[in-house]
Amino acid sequence: MDYLLHILIMVAIYSIVSMSLNVLAGYTGLLSVSHAAFYGIGAYNTALLALNAGLPFWINIPAGIILSGAIAFLIAWPSLRTYDDYFVITTFAFQIIVFSILNNWVSFTGGPLGLPGIPQPEIFGIKISSHVSFLIFVITFAALTYFLLDRLMGSPFGRILKAIREDEIFTTSLGKDVMKFKLTAFIIGASIASISGSLYAYYISFIDPTSFTIMESIFILSIVIIGGAGNLKGSIVGSALLIFIPEVLRFVGMPNSIAANMRQIFYGLLLVLFMMFRPQGILGEFAFGKEGAVKTEGNKDA
Questions:
Q1: What is the predicted pLDDT for the residue at 84?
Q2: From start to end of 92-131, where are the E strands?
Q3: DSSP string covering 190-251
Q4: In which element (H, E) is residue 111 found?
Q5: Per-residue pLDDT reduced to its tens digit, 179-223
Q6: Where are the domains of the chain?
Q7: Which of 25, 46, 119, 181 has CB 3.0 to 4.6 Å from 60, enough for a Cys bridge?
Q8: Is 46 helix (H, G, I), strand (E, B) or coil?
């Protein structure tokens, strides 16, 4: 039972981080491979504040949001002046820089040894320690994230992000400050990603740089693409699919070392198949490619 609850907790955490990337990649059409960096910033911010200052989660999580948002602004301001492949390269560079800092600044981040003993969060003096209580805790955050982003993406702001995704030049001709909207989308995505990092740190009680590599960014992007870019429900479906199905490999008698490699092969194969036959994902309305947006069957006449 605890194993199933663990999987559900991880699905909820990845749903949050993939929804945050969906704002940037799915709704705005900006392909970023640096999301694990903001995920890690949130995790390390929470771990360091909890371990060194003894601050509670209701301070640590907002602090992570502010820190990630500020760093996102500094990174996005020059990065968003580039386009397409160059933007991907700049986000890739930022991901590598953050991982290098986490891995090499041993006196501050613990380096490869990580940060153990992260205290579990408390609400009104009650420690959230059981799997059931933590599942309720993370689902609450996931539900709030979905509600807020759903309202935001359904607002005029969200419609402008979609317009930028479809035709940036035309959106600019309508008098919209495209740079400002893309910058805001980047900051929102990074800030929400930090929330999932904070929840991950609290849940695992130990973090190290290997959880926030470029492969993790690609995994999060795979969730968005397979679940459906431009659809928040797709992020939830994609998270469940890419976390639940590989767990089946644990029950077929494979050694752990082989099963880990098979999971990577599974992720890659699934991503290739979707890009070939269903580029907009399971529930999405947008596909990455030279042709631009690809609409689902239900939206073809829109």
A1: 78
A2: 115-116, 122-123, 126-127
A3: HHHHHHHHHHHHHHHSEE-GGGGSHHHHHHHHHHHHHH-BT-HHHHHHHHHHHHHHHHGGGG
A4: none
A5: 999 999 999 999 999 999 999 999 999 999 999 999 999 999 999
A6: 2-212
A7: 46
A8: helix
